[in-house]
Amino acid sequence: MNTKDELRALRAADRRKQNWITIAIIGLGALLVTGVLIIPSLKKVEVKSNPRPMADFDSMGDMNAKVQVEEFSDFQCPYCKQFATEMEATYVEQYVETGKVHWKFITYSFIGEESVKAAEAAYCAADQGKFWEYHDLLFANQNGENQGTFNQKLFLQMAKDLSLDVTTFQACIDKSTYAQKVTDNMNYGQSRGVNGTPYFLVNDKLVDSGNLKAAIEEALKAE
């Protein structure tokens, strides 16, 4: 091979090397982007909260309403998310806004430690008048059970998204301010026969979501 041939071969090899470097960089970039997208704790979900008339901490509606509904729910429960995002608004419109029902949300955190921590975070948000908004964000960010989704980083990010006093919120989390309340909720639910979620007490009658409307109507008609 003469000198010109050698130069051409070297240049061709160099071009191939550069091409492989370019491909590698593109591939690495794609992996990094994909990695960011699939990390649950970094997921940001835009949520428009439904109106909750006469909201007070973890309840809504007229406290003296004829029908009292207690909802037992776990923030990691997919059926609870389905109820919250697809059905709750209808009940609020038909029964809570009209003054017929007082509705209270009770955490029943049986799926795992992430459920417990999410419940505590929701009550810390309630201290600043944002329980229901935080409730909506938790369900919107649900990503399977015990997958590491509900962690301190996500809790703080959601607090920021809701313009909470983050220092106060963090202190509430760090002190486990609502740990006992979350435990008490579990004990209360178990004492009333709750063994899963979502379940509802309608004037002391325990029903699942499929029988909720009928139970409310029956309670409204009762003397």
How would you sum up this structure, described in words?
The protein is of the alpha+beta class and about 220 residues long. It has two domains: about 5-40; about 45-220, Glutaredoxin, CATH 3.40.30. Helix content is about 55%, strand content about 10%. The chain contains eight helices and five strands. It has helices at about 5-40, 80-95, 115-125, 130-140, 150-160, 165-175, 180-190, 210-220, and strands spanning about 60, 65-75, 100-105, 200, 205-210. It has a five-stranded mixed β-sheet with strand order 1-3-2-4-5, with helices on both faces. Helix 2 links the parallel strand 2 (about 65-75) and strand 3. Helix 3 runs antiparallel to helix 4 and helix 3 crosses helix 7 (about 180-190). The relative contact order is 0.14. Residues about 10-15 and about 20-40 have low confidence and may be disordered.
Provide tags for this entry:
alpha+beta; 5 strands; single chain; globular; Glutaredoxin; 5-stranded mixed sheet
Summarize the structure.
This protein has 223 residues and is of the alpha+beta class.
The CATH topology assignment of the largest domain is Glutaredoxin
| Low-confidence runs of at least 5 consecutive residues | 12-17, 19-42
Strand arrangement, largest sheet? Answer: 1-3-2-4-5
**Top-tier CATH class of the largest domain:** Alpha Beta
Helical segment tally?
8
Q: Indicate the structural class.
A: alpha+beta
